[in-house]
């Protein structure tokens, strides 16, 4: 028996409704599954990231779906983010630009810290200046930051890459590089800096000499901005709570950090002297629209990296910075 036009119409409408319900149910299930998946954040060892681990130790991340993953080097963090092993990463700004250059679309949601002396070039006693590096061996980790600091240090001191011999050194060999006779100078950072200072080596260049250029930030996978919004909010809230705890109880906080970094409490406190950790207000000044200060910094850095052939492409950075999670952290739901 043939169906009447009205019946056919109702049948089609029913099919559409059923299909929509099925699709909506599938999308809802995917969203719920994403919410059940922890927000994994990768870091390497660096004082500026320690408030994350302090927040964990203080219980701020208990039952919040947040998983901190510590890697041996920044290179491993970059690889993990590229391969989607982690959904978020603590990186230097230049490393984020490299991810953009690779064709990824990381979203920058927080400034952890600005290095004001914590990144350094350490040297033997007899090497008293950058000029004295001519013909010498300089150790550097095979990372974007290592390459960037090296290029800027050379540029600012009128040197060329041909004036030195580069020795590639993973960060776990930085402590022993001088004693093993591998290098005459070394690009490194805290906590290695403090340990080398205690052995009698000294600084000939620091991030103070390139103000505002070494910035550590938090980036997240684009999809995670939506699928893990709740965890991102908890992460930022815990971060700022831990930073405030450190400001009010520095000695107690430093004892926790010292155990993780394997340095003394005094060395922990000293390592933060070379860092500026912006609060929510400072973060909003750097990342808020329309005149995001960090965007200007990133654009200038991209130009330097392109000129130095650290980047292959001219980058469009307009959509990289996403201040929405910070705005929610500034005005949390009650």
UniProtKB/TrEMBL annotation:
Pfam families, alphabetized: NMT1_2 (PF13379)
One GO cellular component term: periplasmic space
Main localization of the protein described in the UniProt heading: periplasm
Keywords, comma-separated and alphabetical: Signal
Signal found in the keyword field: yes
Subcellular location per the Swiss-Prot or TrEMBL entry: Periplasm
Family that this chain belongs to: Belongs to the bacterial solute-binding protein SsuA/TauA family.
Name used for this protein in its record: NitT/TauT family transport system substrate-binding protein
């Amino acid at each position: 028996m043939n169906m009447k036009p009205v019946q056919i119409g109702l049948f089609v409408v029913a099919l559409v409704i059923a299909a929509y319900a099925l699709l909506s149910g599938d999308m809802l299930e995917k969203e719920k599954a994403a919410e059940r998946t922890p927000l994994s954040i990768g870091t390497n060892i660096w004082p500026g990231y320690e408030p994350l681990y302090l927040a964990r130790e203080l219980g701020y991340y208990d039952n919040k779906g947040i998983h901190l993953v510590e890697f041996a080097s920044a290179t491993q963090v970059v690889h993990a983010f590229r391969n989607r092993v982690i959904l978020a990463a603590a990186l230097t700004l230049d490393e984020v630009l490299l991810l953009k250059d690779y064709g990824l679309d990381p979203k920058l949601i927080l400034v952890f810290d600005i290095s004001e002396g914590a990144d350094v070039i350490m040297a033997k006693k007899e090497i008293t200046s950058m000029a004295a590096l001519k013909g010498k061996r300089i150790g550097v980790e095979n990372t974007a930051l290592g390459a960037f600091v090296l290029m800027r240090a050379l540029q600012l001191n009128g040197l060329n890459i041909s004036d030195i011999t580069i020795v590639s050194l993973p960060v776990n060999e930085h402590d022993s590089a001088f004693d093993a006779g591998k290098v005459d100078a070394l690009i490194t950072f805290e906590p290695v800096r403090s340990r080398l200072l205690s052995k009698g080596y000294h600084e000939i260049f620091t991030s103070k000499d390139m103000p505002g250029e070494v910035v550590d930030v938090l980036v997240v996978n684009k999809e995670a901005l939506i699928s893990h919004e709740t965890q991102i909010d908890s992460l930022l809230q815990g971060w700022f709570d831990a930073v405030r705890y450190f400001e009010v109880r520095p000695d107690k906080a430093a004892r926790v950090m010292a155990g993780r970094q394997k340095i003394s409490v005094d060395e922990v406190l000293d390592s933060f002297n070379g860092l500026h950790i912006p609060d929510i207000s400072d973060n909003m000044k750097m990342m808020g629209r329309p005149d995001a200060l960090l965007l200007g910094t990133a654009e200038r850095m991209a130009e330097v990296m392109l000129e130095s052939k650290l980047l292959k492409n001219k980058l469009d950075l307009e959509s990289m910075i996403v201040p929405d999670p910070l705005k929610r952290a500034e005005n949390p739901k009650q």
